[in-house]
Amino acid sequence: MATDPNRNDRPTSDPGDEPRGRWGLATSWAIGLGLFTGAVAGTIVPSETGAQEVRQMAGFTLVFIPALYVVVTSRWSYWRRTNSYIRFAVYQLSFLPAAYVLVRIAGSVFGFTGALGQIVEVIAALAAFAVAVWVTFYGGADRAWVELIDRTGIEW
Question: The domain containing residue 93 runs over which residues?
Fold first, then answer.
């Protein structure tokens, strides 16, 4: 009995639903988001030298990648419910303004130089990361969308 070479007997489920596929996808998303976040946070927090800026970027990246891996894997079904690229855009669009505003406010209040100013700016960058994680993974964007629909009366 000949088999049709064009026939696909494999299941049609998404590889991201399998534990092995989930691990790989979650790892790649965590690395991508962590590198982006670490680079932005490391450059937004003022530094006195180029080497200090590189250390800041590396330090933030080493914190953000594992944290994002934990969040992506723990919220996997929520992450996959909407297109991952939309979630990525939501993450970027929430982190960038939050980081800029919080770090600038911290710098204006505590100074952009000196030990206290730098510590507070790092804390502000970490707070911006928390805002982006909440908006992207814990329903912040969904709540904002519902509020927008309710306030404007748009029928969706």
Answer: 20-152
